[in-house]
Specification:
Layout lengths: L6 E5 L6 E5 L4 E6 L13 E2 L4 H14 L17 H10 L8 E2 H7 L6 H9 L12 E2 L12 H14 L1
Parallel strand pairs: 1-4, 5-6
Antiparallel strand pairs: 1-2, 2-3
Helix pairs in contact: 2-4, 3-4
């Protein structure tokens, strides 16, 4: 059995440092270093500040925060998650920049309007924060609910996108 090598680096953002991880197959994750729920165990990861994909991801995030990028163009590698979670994360990628959808919208899009809580739980486990735009999902009444990076960051991201769209 081969061991999956995961490379990591950190990059600054207006919301604090961001941890980026990659495998040979693609970007494995994006997490806020401080105040992030569901942080991975990085004890066996290799720090590689010169990793081409990690450098590209850092640049694309920088461009996003500068208002110069509306869409991320990075190969993603999801190293975990159930088939249902992966399908929810894929559905998130269809939410346009500067727009929001509700958890119910996502559940209906997936063909199961009753799966709102399961959709919310899957969104909470999204390993590609910002890149896979879980921050664009709001409560049924438009309220800010649930974001593993914190609601203050979610509000910042939504406001940023609304002003740059």
């Amino acid at each position: 059995m081969t061991t999956l090598t995961i490379s990591q680096t950190h990059t600054p953002s207006p919301l604090g440092d961001v941890l980026l991880a990659a495998t040979e197959q693609g970007l494995a994750g994006v997490w806020f270093v401080h105040g992030q729920a569901h942080m991975p165990d990085t004890s066996h990861w290799v720090t590689d500040n010169a990793h081409p994909l990690l450098q590209n991801a850092a640049q694309q995030l920088h461009d996003y925060f500068q208002g110069k990028r509306l869409l991320f163009e990075l190969p993603l590698h999801t190293t975990g998650g159930t088939p249902f979670q992966r399908s929810v994360w894929q559905a998130l990628q269809a939410i346009p920049y500067g727009k929001t959808q509700t958890y119910g919208d996502i559940a209906r899009h997936m063909g199961n309007a009753q799966a709102v809580r399961a959709v919310g739980a899957a969104i909470g486990q999204n390993p590609h924060s910002i890149i896979v735009p879980c921050h664009r999902v709001v409560g049924a009444n438009g309220s800010l609910t649930g974001f593993a990076g914190g609601l203050d960051r979610k509000q910042y991201l939504l406001t940023h996108e609304a002003t740059c769209a």
